[in-house]
Amino acid sequence: MSPALGEEKLIDALIALHEAYLRCEQATEMTTLERLQVEPFSQLAISKGVEQVGEMSHRVLRKFPSFAAQYSTIPLRESFQLRNRISHGYETLDWNVIWRVATRSVPEFRRQLEPILREAGEDVP
Predict the structure, then answer these.
(1) Distances (CA, A) of 53 to 15, 37, 118, 121
(2) Does residue 64 lie within any of the structural domains?
(3) Does a structural domain hold residue 124?
(4) Domain holding 111: CATH number?
(5) What is the tally of structural domains in the chain?
(6) Cα 42 from chain centroid?
């Protein structure tokens, strides 16, 4: 595999992660913490958004470990661990924690990723 192709695949993975961040943030705009605590639809939307962030984070960790090491301030491993928690322990989720991740952590992680994408020549919103 040529370095250019490897870099292109990394950029594709980072774009997918960025899109997952945006979807998660969009889901939070459609509900509130109070609704999240009682409404199954809100619970599904927000947990799925956070879960997708974790899944895309795992893809970057698995396929591009040198990137993950270089940009260790983007908590890819922690995002994947939360994804596993959501996937395997749904009935015991703390919606306050999920809400905090979706409304505070996810936007912060997205802001950390965007300069990397811009430097790679990507046009990010």
Answers:
(1) 12, 21, 20, 22
(2) yes
(3) no
(4) 1.20.120
(5) 1
(6) 18
Residue 97, both tokens: 């924690």
DSSP string covering 11-74, please? HHHHHHHHHHHHHHHHHHTT--HHHHHH-HHHHHHHHHHHHHHHHHHHHHHHH-HHHHHHTTTS
Flag whether 45 is in a domain.
Answer: yes
How many whole angstroms separate alpha carbon 27 and alpha carbon 23? 6
Tokens of 31: 């509900």
For residue 40, give both structure tokens: 């199954």
The owner of tokens 């430097």 is 119
Residue 125 in domain = no
**Rounded percentage of the chain residues whose pLDDT exceeds 70:** 94
Domain span at 76: 3-119
Instruction: Check residue 84 and give its pLDDT.
Output: 87
Residue with tokens 């950390």: 112
pLDDT in tens, 18-72: 999 999 999 999 999 999 999 999 999 999 999 999 999 999 999 999 999 999 9
